[in-house]
UniProtKB/TrEMBL annotation:
CDD domains referenced in this protein's UniProt entry, alphabetically: AKR_AKR1-5-like
Record carries keyword Oxidoreductase: yes
Residues making up the signal peptide according to the UniProt record: none
SUPFAM superfamilies recorded: NAD(P)-linked oxidoreductase (SSF51430)
Name this protein carries in UniProt: Aldo/keto reductase
Source superkingdom: Bacteria
Family: Belongs to the aldo/keto reductase family.
KW NADP (keyword) present: yes
Length: 273
């Protein structure tokens, strides 16, 4: 079984989750296969438009709801006032469940200036039992500074794009200092060619693992929770099979040094405070 990482609110999260940015009609067997492969943490979002299929896959798998850690995220249209109440109700209806384990603000959308009021609604949703834990996604430290100053319940997770090419070292340190777990989307670098990197290939050969497994182990060593996407059952199994070896400090540094130093993706969804 996959080890769990402690969250600041007393709950815990399986250290590797399944990313599910896939169409609804394709997702049902993916979820069934992932649960069969051993995934107990599934990461979806309202924006992916696949929550019905995710819910169907979970039911088809036959697993108990309490054995599964389910994350969803709410988009801009559900920010501000108490719109997140209706947003989460809709997610729960689509998923066919009465709570999520983790609810995230999908993007800070600072131009709208609504993420703090959205957070107050998220806190209420915890009180109501509809979200066990709450967190954010794609927030910068500046956004978190503001949120932490106003929050009663602290965000347990910030899910950001992170891979050996985009290590966000300072941001991960900020999270650590504030008790926030870093989750990583596109941890395998998606289509960037990262998995063909010779440094990763050399380390992979040492352990008889694949470059993808080396990347996921690097996340684990750094206390990061990656949510790799895969539709392939063999690769799903592979992506959980990273708990029987450890990387040396030098190897961890060599992988972190793959950071291109390129400016983080400047996104209108995150610029501003
Ligand atoms: P596939 O679904 O065919 O396995 P990311 O999560 O960084 O966005 O990466 C997702 C991509 O990485 C998908 O195209 C997925 O393809 C591929 N992928 C997932 N796991 C592995 C793996 N263990 N080895 C190689 N490619 C993988």
């Amino acid at each position: 079984t996959v080890p769990r990482v402690q969250l600041s609110d007393g709950h815990s999260i399986p250290q590797i989750g399944l990313g599910t940015a896939l169409d609804d009609d394709a997702i049902v067997p993916v979820i069934v296969n992932a649960i069969e492969a051993g995934f107990r943490h599934i990461d979806t979002a309202y924006r992916y438009g696949n929550q019905r299929g995710v819910g169907q896959g979970i039911r088809d798998s036959g697993i108990g709801r309490d054995e599964l850690f389910l994350t969803t995220k709410l988009d801009g249209e559900f920010q501000g006032d108490s719109r997140a109440v209706a947003g989460l109700d809709e997610c729960l209806r689509q998923l066919g469940t009465d709570y999520v384990d983790l609810l995230l603000i999908h993007w800070p959308l600072p131009q709208r200036n609504e993420y703090v009021s959205t957070w107050r609604t998220f806190e209420q949703l915890v009180e109501d039992g509809k979200a066990r834990s709450i967190g954010v996604s794609n927030f910068t430290p500046a956004h978190l500074d503001r949120l932490l100053a106003e929050a009663t319940i602290l965000p347990v997770v910030n899910q950001i794009q992170l891979s050996p090419r985009i290590t966000r070292h300072d941001q991960v340190a900020y999270h650590r200092a504030h008790g926030i777990v870093t989750a990583a989307w596109s941890p395998l670098g998606s289509g960037s060619g990262l998995r063909d990197d010779p440094t990763l290939a050399a380390i992979a050969a040492t352990y008889g693992k694949t470059p993808a497994q080396i990347i996921l182990r690097w996340d684990v060593e750094l206390g990061i929770v990656p949510v790799p996407r895969s539709t392939n059952p063999a690769r799903m199994v592979q992506n959980l099979d990273v708990f029987d070896f450890t990387l040396t400090a030098d190897e961890i540094s060599a992988i972190s040094a793959l950071d291109t130093g390129a400016e983080e993706r400047v996104d209108s969804d995150t610029v501003g405070h």
